[in-house]
Design brief:
This protein has 361 residues and is an alpha/beta fold. The protein folds into two domains: 150 residues, Rossmann fold; 183 residues, Glycosyl transferase family 29 (sialyltransferase cstii, chain A, Alpha-Beta Complex). It is 37% helix and 16% strand. The chain has a seven-stranded parallel sheet. Strands 2-1-3-4-6-5 form a six-stranded mixed sheet, sandwiched between helices. Helix 1 crosses helix 2 and helix 1 packs antiparallel against helix 5. It starts with a helix and ends with a strand. 34% of the residues are buried. It holds the Pfam family Glyco_transf_29. Its main location: membrane.
Length: 361
């Protein structure tokens, strides 16, 4: 939603009677808020404690051992606080090849963490996917209603703006010159493939070098890399079923995008300008769903696609079938829309039947 963070802060600042605020961190929210008239860099030695402090994408970049200390520093900087926290890993790595987001936890965990420092933590509705907003206080009911009304208006306006594009999506797909499966199979012919899933458990492994040694490295959805030691550095193809930002493909330097979902309304508009895009056939998706008895995950659809190709070998990394957590979001095995028990049975049967496939645990 355009400028939603700025609108939230503007409403809160007016309610608090704030004429200035203290802004820390960087990201989408910080850029929006920085454009507000009351936004200003915190002075070196403020004579009066400002009424409102904004912390954007700082907490998740802090090592767990230093988290409480940072929250206390921010607490001392104002009477009221707003925290924006990401619940997924960043696209950026530091010089040591480690993801810059150090602490990735579910929204409930962050709420409990902040509640150790503030008596009345309030969580606001989501503005951007995989980002949560917390206030260090409980706003007055009238302010809460104003926030709720503003967010609903912005969400409605966003849907209206997107409506023409969604209505034209089927026509654009028909006219698009996406890759055929025959051409894709030609690219895979005789190649070794590393398919990297999003199981959190992969971060404890040392598979990075083996992943990078493959002819083609395929990552799923937002293509998270926690460390180069565990996940490798290369990304040749990205397979996705969600509306990922173009910057994911740009930063990962992917050459091919595999669109695996039959749902065209999720198809990102930037894909129509990407040089090499493959759209998984709807029939293949339906057949796999029939075998599994539920909607297949992105990883399962890619495995099915690779099994139809003439690739030399496929090594599966980061596939624990939700016996642990996933880097893709906040779902658990119980809340995900996929049947990972059925997917595990299907994959293990494939491993027995097709010697090209191996599961790296």
């Amino acid at each position: 939603m355009n400028n939603a963070y700025a609108r939230i802060v503007d409403i809160l600042a007016r309610a608090l009677g704030a004429s200035s605020l203290s802004l820390h961190g960087e990201g989408i929210a910080a850029r929006q808020i920085a454009d507000l008239p009351i936004a200003s860099a915190p002075p070196a030695a403020a004579p009066v404690e400002p009424p409102l402090l904004i912390s954007v994408n700082e907490l998740e970049k802090t090592d767990p051992a230093a988290l409480d200390a940072l929250i206390e520093i921010r607490k001392a900087g104002a009477t009221h606080h707003l925290f924006v926290v990401s619940t997924i890993f960043s696209l950026s790595l530091d010089d040591a090849g480690v993801n810059v987001n150090r602490t990735i936890e579910r929204p409930e965990w962050w709420r409990n963490q902040l509640a150790r420092h503030f008596p009345a933590v309030t969580q606001l509705p989501e503005v951007e996917p995989h980002e949560v907003i917390f206030l260090s206080w409980a706003p007055e009911p009238a302010v809460s209603r104003r926030l709720d009304k503003a967010l609903k208006r912005m969400k409605l306006a966003s849907r209206i703006r997107a409506l023409p594009g969604r209505l034209l999506q089927p026509l654009r797909v028909k006219r698009a010159r996406f890759m055929s499966e025959r051409l894709l199979s030609h690219l895979l012919d005789g190649k070794s493939v590393a398919l990297v899933g999003n199981a959190v458990s992969l971060r404890d492994k040392d598979h990075g070098a083996a992943i990078d040694a493959s002819d083609i490295v395929i990552r799923c959805n937002r293509a998270p890399i926690i460390t180069t030691r565990s996940h490798g550095t290369r990304t040749d193809w990205i397979a996705t079923s969600i509306d990922i930002p173009r910057e994911v493909a740009d930063i990962r330097k992917a050459s091919v995008i595999l669109w695996m979902s039959p749902k065209l309304k999720r198809l990102p508009s930037w894909l129509f300008g990407w040089p090499q895009v493959f759209m998984n056939p709807k029939e293949a998706n339906q057949q796999l769903a029939g075998r599994l008895g539920s909607r297949p995950s992105t990883g399962a659809m890619v495995i099915d696609l690779l099994s139809r190709s003439n690739c030399r070998s496929v090594e599966l990394y980061g596939f624990d079938f939700f016996n642990g957590l996933s880097l893709s979001g906040v779902h658990t095995r119980e809340t995900t829309p996929h049947d990972f028990g059925a997917e595990e049975v299907w994959v293990r049967q494939l491993l027995e039947m097709d010697s090209r496939f191996s599961l790296r645990l």
